[in-house]
């Protein structure tokens, strides 16, 4: 598809040149009021300004002005990667503008871009933290400096603008930056990589926008070099930045979860554009192993606080689950690319799980607070962060307005702005629905036929999804609807369908309505017995939504962590809320907590279970996703 | 007791001026060949030289020479606290010399001391990392600089030398350093504390040695100041260095586990010397809460890798258990002080558990390798560290010769050198036996009566402890023997005794033998149901020794992490090795590890269980202390 086609369609965040499925543009899918539209609207109307406010307040935007005015390094503020938060905001604004064409937003965007652009040096280099007198030299710290990571986000922002608007000051800045990277890190340049992957998918995306082969070649070099110990060893080991094993030789994602998912995304982009089926198969296998052994029930990835990393197989503690918001976004990026490449529903299954249980969990209802980590078990009630204070990154107790490392707010912003992209795809002759949300869709197939659909649903509250045809050719075409793996008993127009793709291939008339019914009654979920940390526990899910118990819903004086579900417990329905019976287990008499007999249980209490993504919104509380079961 | 009395008795590592029990000197208790003597001998004959070698090789000893030669900061090596490893080696050597009077050791010791002493500045300040041109100014980073921590270890080394040898160059260096600390941090000085407690117990101990009240007053100031947010906030929160809550107001140990136990030890020292019963009661309550809710089965403390800290109540994951060796030593220091103050057996119970299951676990058999952390579950076989390479501190897979942060080897060295101190105590008229090991004891009670005992046992291999009287007055005196809480069915001279103190108050004749029989048959131990991470598991203990399963003892192809004990499993005895039945549980069919049915179990296999302290000594392996139980 040409860049002009993309501009007309409103752009899209990953546009492979080949693959089983093709993404739609952000103007081809309009979210209607409902679960996701509400979040996208909050992002547009509140989060973008909130983020811009904090970028000014923290001085991270001012770093660019300080660079121009020669006030660096004295006036430099924030961590080494602070520039990237500005770039991610610009990316979010670009997608948002592609969708809304809001001139006020466009003016804000252009004002920010001019400040960024002014700081670019003559040779294309742009980073407020390196290279000036008194600063470390350029590329003197590839392990931790984040310079190429920073260029990656700059290029991604430029790609977003190019796909939604065409040529532009930021696009030119991004191209100059990418040319600089190719010059310095090319075949005869520095034979290394960045400690934080991101430049890899960015360069492939820029190749897709510009058609310039050198960006693809450079991405290929970066992917090939990594894994050969080109970076120095660090306390966390080289697996932290995936420099332990070459991408095509690894069998599972490992190390820092954001780094791992970004790198894997770039590797898929590269494999698709170069026809490297071996590389694509390698990453696909890594995805599958990671989903089977290193992923939380919520879809969250990365269990370790120390290095924000994947744990070993089946090491998935619910308390102190790191499950970084950005890692969930990286997981969606990766699953989306694999979905486009392979066309299998399982990738969309994980995207759905991750959207409803991590990405919907992270932001506050007002769009001005965020979880950085998304624990599955909160043992001690958190405290409200002070409104004007930077919060340590791992503070997961209550959503905070901003962090000393504030990657998650801006990452959410660009994700919500481009969220419509994940709803549906097309292929040569039909349309596929992946995510169910009220939406209007209209697209032109490659053969020129127009298709329009209106999706009417209050999913996931209810499992009925009605798809009304608003535009259709008078020839047959296939409509495919994803049936999630938990949806046993699902029907399409009354006929049973099984998980995977439910497909209708026929002539559709305007006004036709297709109805998918997904059973969303609550269900008990048991974990693989090898997941030690949740042995003897069950979780409750309802459709794609993981439920949890929260202390604010319990009687005063009842501790959530002392409640066990009696064996054979049933799920009750209390006016739409799922309720289970909890039995307070008496603590042992002795102080030493090993070997003493348990005391007598207390009286049973009802435990209301509510969506995990709603937790922590009613003040400090404790919370559990996994509920222990007792035999007594 | 006067310093000359202590010198004659061989010194002791904590000598309170009051309390229920009095420590014996290191020349009053001689370990005989057996479990602990072997480890003390390995420490003497191998570890001390190994440590000295690494201190030279790493340049941490050379830092003192560089200071004298004006080659700092250019030639500075190691972390900010590297000086303290030299001091802890000197402390270990001092205790060892007190016991052995080995002139060769004494010469090595004096050679090291002269290098340290030469670097002390005119005003008593001594630190190779601060205060010179090009270095950070003195006390410019109290949060992380470790300057007072460093002085604390210097003073502790001086105290050890004073108690075993009297006046000495190192004692004078320590006194000058302590005087400097009092001058700079006194009532009119810097009103703050060190980010790492250690100066507190050191100053009280120096007061005990010198009788100089100003050291006690300064320790009191440090204990009083902490907890009032006198240090800057950090990413881990101020609880990391216990600056969140004043010592006397806290109800549990929290934050960095070594910092917490060192501070609590100093607070007990202070409370005992000042008659501050409120402070003593506060720390006693903290100890009790910590033992009941934040301590591993092994006695290990501190569950978090990120900040080497205590987790929240009942957050005790066996995998990624941090359980730092130094925290176990801090726990022994604290429990020992509370034992001397209160006289209750429970403190000696925890010391025994910690000695057999952490402190005996950490060193390699040859005394030249060490665990920094002591996990209770190793999921992936570790790799042998390269002999000449510094190892990251949290590498717990196999014992390493030295670490970038190498506090544990030197801490073990001073502990093994002074280990005899923990065996027994006296009070006004009798003797108490706390730890059972082959040993000869001889002491003079305050009223001048002489008592001599020979303890004959191969404990913990066997539970028979024979105490033969070798010297006794012809008047009655009480002999108290600790009966551990797990020893149901114990007998003393054939009569049943219950956990706590078994006491014989009578006239003893030389040649009399008292026999304590502690049943050490293996037993199943269930955890408190609130410890989520080991729910549905049992451990096996034998006497004071925690057992574990190790992959090297399993048939090839059997994964330790897939084995479950069938319900109602029995402990079998296979020629002295405890064996349980393990049933490989088939993994679920589906990739997604939640909600799928388990596959068919494999054939039962025998799982030999061996002492946890022996694990990791036969090459890379996986290991579990907690074994999951299945109902099927």
Oligomer: homodimer
Number of helices of chain A: 14
Helix content of chain A: 25-40%
* Biggest sheet descriptor of chain A: 7 strands, antiparallel
List keywords for this structure.
homodimer, 632 residues, alpha+beta, 7-stranded antiparallel sheet, 22 strands
Could you characterize the architecture of this molecule?
Chain A has 632 residues and is of the alpha+beta class. Chain A is built from 14 helices and 22 strands. In chain A, the strands form three sheets. In chain A, strands 2-6-7-8-13-10-11 form a seven-stranded antiparallel beta sheet, with no helix packed on it. In chain A, a hairpin with a 2-residue loop joins strand 15 (537-542) and strand 16 (545-550). The mean pLDDT of chain A is 95.
Topology overview:
Two copies of one chain form a homodimer.
Chain A: H1 3-9, E1 22-23, E2 29-31, H2 35-57, H3 62-68, H4 83-100, H5 103-118, H6 147-165, H7 169-185, H8 199-210, H9 213-225, H10 257-274, H11 277-293, H12 325-342, H13 345-359, E3 377-378, H14 407-417, E4 424-426, E5 431-433, E6 439-444, E7 450-456, E8 464-471, E9 477-483, E10 491-492, E11 495-496, E12 500-506, E13 513-517, E14 522-525, E15 537-542, E16 545-550, E17 563-566, E18 572-574, E19 577-584, E20 605-611, E21 623-624, E22 627-630
Parallel strand pairs in A: 5-9, 17-22
Antiparallel strand pairs in A: 1-4, 2-6, 3-21, 4-5, 6-7, 7-8, 8-13, 9-12, 10-11, 10-13, 14-15, 15-16, 15-22, 16-20, 16-21, 17-19, 18-19, 19-20
Helix pairs in contact in A: 1-6, 2-4, 2-14, 4-5, 4-6, 4-14, 6-7, 6-8, 8-9, 8-10, 9-10, 10-11, 10-12, 12-13
């Amino acid at each position: 598809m040409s860049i002009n086609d993309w501009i007309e369609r409103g752009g899209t965040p990953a546009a492979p040149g080949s693959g089983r499925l093709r993404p739609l543009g952000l103007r081809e899918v309009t979210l209607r009021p409902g679960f996701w539209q509400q979040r996208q609207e909050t992002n547009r109307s509140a989060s973008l300004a909130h983020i811009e406010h904090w970028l000014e307040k923290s001085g991270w935007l001012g770093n660019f002005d300080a660079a121009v005015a020669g006030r660096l390094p004295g006036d430099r503020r924030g961590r080494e990667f602070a520039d990237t938060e500005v770039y991610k905001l610009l990316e979010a604004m670009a997608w948002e503008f592609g969708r809304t064409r809001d001139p006020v937003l466009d003016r804000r965007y252009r004002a920010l871009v001019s400040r960024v652009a002014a700081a670019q040096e003559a040779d294309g280099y742009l980073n407020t933290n390196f290279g000036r007198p008194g600063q470390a030299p350029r590329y003197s710290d590839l392990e931790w400096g984040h310079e190429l990571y920073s260029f990656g986000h700059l290029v991604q922002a430029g790609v977003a603008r190019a796909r939604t608007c065409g040529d532009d000051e930021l696009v030119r800045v991004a191209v100059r930056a990418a040319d600089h990277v190719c010059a310095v890190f090319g075949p005869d340049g520095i034979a290394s990589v960045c400690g934080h992957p991101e430049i890899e998918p960015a360069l492939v995306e820029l190749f897709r926008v510009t058609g310039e082969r050198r960006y693809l070649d450079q991405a290929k070099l970066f992917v090939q070099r990594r894994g050969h110990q080109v970076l120095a060893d660090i306390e966390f080991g080289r697996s932290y930045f995936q420099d332990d094993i070459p991408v095509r030789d690894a069998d599972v994602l490992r190390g820092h979860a954001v780094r791992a998912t970004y790198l894997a995304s770039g590797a898929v982009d590269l494999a698709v554009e170069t026809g490297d089926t071996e590389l694509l198969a390698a990453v696909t296998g890594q995805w599958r192993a990671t989903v089977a052994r290193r992923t939380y029930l919520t879809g969250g990835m990365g269990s370790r606080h120390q290095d924000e990393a994947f744990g070993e197989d089946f090491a998935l503690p619910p308390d102190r689950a790191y499950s970084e918001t950005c890692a969930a976004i990286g997981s969606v990026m990766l699953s989306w690319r694999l979905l486009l490449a392979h066309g299998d529903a399982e990738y969309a299954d994980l995207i759905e799980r991750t959207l409803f249980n991590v990405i919907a969990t992270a932001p506050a209802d007002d769009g001005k607070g965020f979880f950085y980590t998304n624990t599955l078990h909160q043992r001690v009630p958190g405290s409200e962060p002070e409104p004007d204070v930077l919060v340590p990154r791992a503070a997961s107790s209550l959503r905070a307005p901003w962090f000393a490392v504030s990657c998650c707010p801006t990452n959410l912003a660009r994700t919500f702005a481009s969220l419509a992209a994940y709803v549906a795809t097309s292929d040569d002759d039909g349309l596929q629905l992946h995510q169910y949300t009220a939406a209007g869709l209209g697209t032109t197939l490659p053969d020129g036929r127009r298709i329009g659909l209106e999706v009417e649903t209050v999913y996931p509250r209810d499992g009925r999804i009605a798809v009304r045809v608003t535009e259709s050719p008078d020839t047959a075409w296939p409509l495919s609807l994803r049936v999630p793996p938990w949806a046993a008993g699902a029907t399409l127009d009354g006929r049973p369908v099984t998980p995977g793709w439910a497909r209708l291939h026929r002539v559709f008339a305007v006004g036709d309505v297709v109805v998918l019914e997904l059973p969303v009654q609550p269900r008990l979920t048991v974990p693989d017995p090898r997941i030690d940390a949740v042995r003897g526990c069950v979780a409750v899910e309802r459709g794609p939504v993981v439920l949890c118990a929260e202390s604010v819903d319990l009687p005063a004086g009842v501790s959530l962590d002392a409640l066990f579900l009696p064996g054979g417990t049933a799920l009750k329905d209390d006016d739409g809320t799922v309720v289970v019976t909890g039995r307070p287990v008496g603590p042992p008499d002795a102080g030493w907590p090993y070997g003493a007999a348990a005391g007598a249980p207390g009286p049973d209490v009802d435990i209301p279970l509510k969506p995990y993504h709603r937790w922590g919104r009613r003040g400090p509380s404790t919370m559990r996703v996994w509920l222990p079961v007792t035999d007594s």
